Amino acid sequence: MITETPARIRRTGQAGAAYALIWAFLLVNLAIVELMLANPATPAHNTLTSIGRILGLHLAFVMALQLLLIARLPFLDRRLGMDKLTTWHRWTGFTLFWLVVLHPTFVMLGYSQLDKISFFAEIPNLAKQMPVLLGMIAAALVGVVAVTSVRAARRRFSYEAWHATHLVVYVVIVLGVIHQVYEGSAFKTNNFTQAYWWGLWIFAIGALLTGRVVLPVLRNLRHRMRVAAVVAESDDAVSVHVTGRDLHKLHARAGQFFLWRFPGHNRWWQVNPWSLSAAPDGHSLRLTAKAIGSTSAGLRHLPVGTRVFAEGPYGALTAVARTRPDTLLIAGGIGVTPIRALFEDETLSGDLVVLYRVRTPADAVLLGELRNLARLRHARLHLLTGRTSRENQPFSPDNLRGLVPDITERDVYVCGPAPMTHEVLRSLRTLKVPARQRHVELFRLGA
User: Fold this and answer.
1) N or C: which end of the chain has fewer CB within 10 A?
2) Are residue 178 and residue 35 in the same domain, yes or no?
3) CA end-to-end span of the chain
């Protein structure tokens, strides 16, 4: 019989509270939106404009929800993890895109029927009204963001360029709110509807500004972080040691990551998510990155003393998520960084096994540190090398069971390239490792 450990009870309760809050928020707000549709201030001109109005109301709510998902609220991030929130952000973004396409389409179809002109002739006709024109501009910008989010297009952008493109989301929000205030009939139904929409937008925008601007600025003014040392780990990987004041008050944990900027060395909009590659000790932080883009490659040339602006800590890939006494840590490539930090975390007690997947031993960043930790912690470390092929499938269910026979009785932490991570998760599901024992970080960030 499996007994509930305090860690499991605490983690389950924290995640359950977050899910309950999200569902309550969704259901209450959707109920209010449906009531607005049932009692409009003015009747729709025809069926097509009525459909457009329905889509428009839901579009406004989804846009506010999207803001909350990218606000990096500590309550949700610590309980669910930014990775899960970003997955929801991505799917909400596609919903937003289709609502942006369909809402104006039905509105213009309805007005073209009313004015007895063609759909395309109605576009410049409605665009003469400034609130409508602002809505059209916002819709076009949403299209740009959606196109750059498609995986085929995303691969053509550097992370920095992709992130900068997504900053137009904030322009979309401003244009969308102005459009709704001056054009939306549901906004003006009565005093309650106006109070609701203003309250929703103030809450969503306030949460965004608090999580993305106010808290990061206050924390960085308080901690005054600077580069203390830059250490080359290999030909294409480098570690940056950061010090500052009262870093213990950040309450950072092994397995978490920050969004890092280096003002004066890089442009302000160049921000990257890099994990802590060592367990934080309250006095310093260490990140390790591989030279993939221009920003990561430039870390090697950071002067000591460079100012550091860090947002975080973020992520739920921590020992707090542990539900079992024993642990399996799986890393791929530079995804070893949070795994290396977790390996050092003494709160991960019990039997430890580490699987580190690289193409060649020369690609194994921080391997020496992992070996030293394995000796100190009496843990097992397996370096899995070679090209993946039909004969070499290190993360197949059979191979995982062969390396770790009691895998179903362990918590499993995974971080690495997306294809490897998905392969590991498929095998874990095949092996019937419970979902609560699978902990993953993919670094799929929103804007």
Assistant:
1) N
2) yes
3) 45
